[in-house]
Amino acid sequence: MQLTTIYQDYLEALRIGDRRAALKTARAAIANGTDIHDLYMEVFQPAMYEVGRLWESKQFSVAQEHLATAITQSVMAQVYVTVDGHAPIGRTMVATCIGGEMHELGIHMVADFFEMEGWEVCYLGANMPAHDVIHMLDRKRAELLAISVTLGGHIVQVRELIEAVRAAPVGKRVKIMVGGQPLNRAPETWRTLGADFTASNAREAVRTVMEESCHDYHP
Q1: Is residue 162 a contact partner of residue 192, using CB atoms and an 8 Å limit?
Q2: How does strand 92-97 pair with strand 175-179?
Q3: pLDDT at 150
Q4: CA-angle at 147, arms to 208 and 60, nearest 5°
Q5: How wide is the angle at C-alpha 131 spanned by C-alphas 125 and 132, nearest 5°?
């Protein structure tokens, strides 16, 4: 089955709010040999971008947008457990959204991609206080912190979280990656936030970290 067809079928399931149809589409794709990375990047992500566009243009209600998000979270969880990941490689990351963020799909995809590459992933989800993020970084001796932001108005909170991490002892060894739609629209913003790098999607995030970053990390 072509990815375009899978995407169209999946998006239609989201349009009508049919969780079973969405899950059936995703499971059939995996059963027919679709790579889970492609399913995430070519189906789930663009479908949710389209849902966002439909909401912004008032073709979707808030309830429909929330339902589509919940469906995709559920589908991701159920197809993810069926795929064998890479053996553990002894590297750890913490993934989170800044305080007040309630859109977690993007950072959830990033977390899944790293876990499939063998990383230990501490996925904290949304609305995490800075001191709790720092505590987890220290407790897990993580070498990477991934921060997601979906609303431009929350950029200041990203900066505050990064500053708090940098001010803590753990901040001397942790690399920080930021991502999200506001940063995709303004690609150089990550530099002013004090991050080490950015990525526009989960696949790029893994490639950037594995190829360009954290080479000098020593636990």
Answers
A1: no
A2: unpaired
A3: 78
A4: 105
A5: 40
CA distance 113 to 118: 9
Residues found in the chain: 219
Q: Which residues pair with 88 in a beta bridge?
A: none
Residue 76: in which H helix or E strand, if any? helix 62-80
Evaluate the CA torsion angle 61, 67, 70, 72 in order and state its sign.
negative
Q: Which residues of the chain have pLDDT under 70?
A: 1, 99-103, 212-219
- d(C-alpha 114, C-alpha 210), whole Å: 10
User: Are 198 and 190 spatial neighbours (Cβ–Cβ below 8 Å)?
Assistant: yes
Q: Which of 209, 184, 186, 207 is nearest to 196 (CA)?
A: 209
pLDDT of residue 182: 84
pLDDT at 184: 83
| Residue 59 burial (CB count, 10 A) | 11
114 within 8 A of 206, measured Cβ to Cβ: yes
- Mapping DSSP to helix (H, G, I), strand (E, B) and coil, where does residue 103 land? coil
In the prediction, which pLDDT does 103 show?
A: 66
In this prediction, residue 214 carries a pLDDT of: 45
The reported pLDDT for the residue numbered 125 is 81
Structural domains of the chain sorted by starting position, each given as residue range(s) with its CATH number in brackets: 3-80 (1.10.1240.10), 92-212 (3.40.50.280)
